Amino acid sequence: MSTNSDEVMAEKSDIDTSRRGFFRAATRGVSQTFETPDAPAINVGRPLGAVEESLFDRLCNQCGECAAACPQGVINLSSRGPELDLSLNHCTFCQKCIHACDTQALNPLNTIDTGLRPKFTNSCNARLFGNCEECYEDCPRSAIELQPNQLPTLNDNCNGCGECVSSCYIGAISLCASH
Q1: Hey, which bits of 23-115 come out as E strands?
Q2: In what order do the strands lie in the sheet with 44-45?
Q3: Distance (Å) of CA 140 to CA 90, 129, 134, 158, 168
């Protein structure tokens, strides 16, 4: 007989537990202590499909079903309610969190963007040495553009999935709220 926790654990297997993923996560904090970004790095926002903030606060009962349904393990419950945390993994836009939400605080009409954008710091190896293309190669929407020895730039294809953050093995990318 399968329990609900067994199902959640099976779904959580999509989290990047490879050796490469471990070292990306383990070394990420080291480089971020040497540089203070202009915009605060948050890597956190409301889950995919979140309605406007004041309505979200009224609708969300903080049941945790969205967090339990997320196969990537990127939704956590905090004192403010559920939050999308893309510091260690990325959002695949699978919408399982939305389908798990009975209160409509997460709505399928709001599923094209997380509202977060990558910020590239000066410690980026593509800028310093011109020898890194990890974020460029891993971006599922080809939203990152590279020029030799310059910081990567974004085009309009970015949806804030966070794949670039989890692909950067030195932690030179953080996410900030888009303007």
Answers
A1: 44-45, 75-78, 81-85
A2: 44-45, 81-85, 75-78
A3: 11, 24, 12, 9, 14
| Distances in whole angstroms, Cα of residue 84 to Cα of each of 40, 53, 171 | 16, 14, 18
**Residues 96 and 135 grouped into a single domain:** no
Q: Tell me the percentage of the chain whose pLDDT exceeds 90.
A: 66
CATH of the domain at 140: 3.30.70.20
**Strand, coil or helix: what is 3?**
coil
Q: Report whether pLDDT(34) > 80.
A: no
CA separation (Å) from 75 to 68, 95, 96? 8, 12, 11
Do residues 145 and 163 both lie within one domain?
yes
CA 105/CA 56 separation, integer angstroms: 5
| Full domain range(s) for residue 53 | 41-114
Amino acid at 171: G
Separation of CA 161 from chain center: 5
- Quote the pLDDT of residue 101: 97
Residue type, 100: A
For the chain, how many structural domains are there in total? Answer: 2
Tens of pLDDT, residue by residue over 121-162, are 999 999 999 889 999 999 999 999 999 999 999 999 999 999
